[in-house]
What does this fold into?
Amino acid sequence: MKNKRTSIKDIAKALDVSITTISFVLNGKGEERKISKEVIKKIEDYVEEVNYRPNQVAQSLRTGKSKILVFMVEDIGNIFFAKIGRIIEDIAYKKGYKVLFASTDNDDIRSRELINVFHERQVDGFIIVPSPGIKKDIAQLMASDIPVVLCDRYFEDLDTNYVMLDNYGAAKEGTQHLIDNGYQNIAFINIETEQNQMVERAEGYKDTVEAAGLPVNIVAIPFSETHSEKGKNILRKVLAGTDSKIDSVLFSTNYLTQNCLELINEISPSLKHELGIITFDDDPFFKINSPSISSIAQPLQAIGEECMNIMFKLLKDKDRKNSETTKITLDAHLIERDSTQKKKHSF
Amino acid sequence: MKNKRTSIKDIAKALDVSITTISFVLNGKGEERKISKEVIKKIEDYVEEVNYRPNQVAQSLRTGKSKILVFMVEDIGNIFFAKIGRIIEDIAYKKGYKVLFASTDNDDIRSRELINVFHERQVDGFIIVPSPGIKKDIAQLMASDIPVVLCDRYFEDLDTNYVMLDNYGAAKEGTQHLIDNGYQNIAFINIETEQNQMVERAEGYKDTVEAAGLPVNIVAIPFSETHSEKGKNILRKVLAGTDSKIDSVLFSTNYLTQNCLELINEISPSLKHELGIITFDDDPFFKINSPSISSIAQPLQAIGEECMNIMFKLLKDKDRKNSETTKITLDAHLIERDSTQKKKHSF
DNA sequence: ATTGTTAAGTAAAACGTTTTATCTATTTTG
DNA sequence: CAAAATAGATAAAACGTTTTACTTAACAAT
It folds into this structure.
């Protein structure tokens, strides 16, 4: 009943030709291996006729190549990663690669386990948004001569291929935009982390306000508290402004924006019209919100494309171990909307 | 240099034990096959020591099982699918399965190609959000005795496992909510499609307004025009209300909501405060928007869980061909917000 | 003393490919 | 005309497992 798929052996039997010959023909080595035109034709026709497709698992076992790439992110349910994932997927498919997605939750243990699992599965390459503590594992992975591209983050003292946003520059630009529009007391709302992309955003902010002679006000919310009452209280205090009254905020990531906006709404509906607001990561609804919300948009398409450019380069390169790593830094795109147009007086 | 991974053969050599014995021990068949305690211990210790991990590709080839599931959706960059994907991924990993994601763009050709590709790769099961015209391919896939669960949509006349929203009921509930709040002229904004989930939503809407003696007004925007000027014009006309003035809208899916809200904003900023608005698929920003937007939220967690319940049942079931299909219909969750609180007069 | 049983283990086939080495005719070359 | 080269193909090993069928030794039963 369970009709087994046709294998190369079945074809060999049917055409009275050796397995080897068929394999050569299928892999386009017919000419090279001096297989006669007639035999080539015969095989190709038959393959077409029975719609034979080689068993990829067997191919993988033999060649050690799987034609599978893996995209390891913090959370594939986060729209930022999901969008990049889609872009990567599309590019990969065009070249015959499939993409496994995996969410690490930014957890080192989970990341490590995933790397091992995929390594066992003989995936051909890794695109990784690394969790903070897996530098060693990344190094090991690279040492085992498998293509690795880091995305969104990197490690200062590890020579890897990566594709990053110019986080420092982007934060600078966003902050300067607030300053240019007359804001004088800007808070930078961040999550508590040592991930370099966040650190750089904080630096960009800090250097810019300092250069303008304005006060530095960095608020770090623990990752675990972004949805909790405790986190809300931290924000409440900032907005209440014990020392000096804040007139604007820069959110460092889309985790925070949503929750903080919600909170701002909760504290005082008029506040969101008075406060200058700009955030990293754009969202379609920012345009619709009132006020529409300014953002520092990441070039998702470019991020995905660059990751795949590097990946394909690595996949082709026979001795990639000896070739230089590629490091790409991309510019963000500042989207100016109503939330950063300083109003002379609140209403 | 390129230190090959240790294989079962290496262990055999190192311990002077046969390959077979090791395989039995590794697969927990040591007792059953009467391997002595000492040998079992010796093998287990060594395996631990050298951190041996079996080559999964070889396992797959031999057993025909890959421990990979595939989740085929319309677009993994769409937050609705991305969220479900994340839930499925988490459940899968707990049982040692990995998940391949694939976006079909709702295109039949692409869907068909993907199904074939994954079939070749010997994935163990499919969770599919089917494009409109691949009923036959789904049937074929099921005939080849591989677990298939449809998600979000199904085919009327094909006996499959599926997990669906009660689209009819959900649309009914949403529509009734508008009626209860005093709206009298409700438009249903849909994409032009024959996908059953959309048809059912339209029916739910239609039956409800008709039962209340209110006019039926179904607007179908071609899929390709959701972002175009042409699509906008269709909407403009509806909102202008040539025949009768519309006082509220029900959006059938999250593709539309964003664009239409944008357009409503564009046409007249005050309109969004006057119009009753409710939409399928919740979004975090609906809560923050002013007015906050009512929605018919899908139970993402439950959808993911039910898909996986069925999948695991199928994976276990030896003769699933003869067992009954499982059909699950889930209820939506109506979230009432400001956008459906009828205002006595516009402002 | 033969037969049967069990304990403890192994050899070898199989999964479906790719690839290396080899083979036989035929043709070319010196 | 013998040696060398080439055309056209194939056998068999290899990838790393799982699994079937077998072996051997020890012991028990008749």
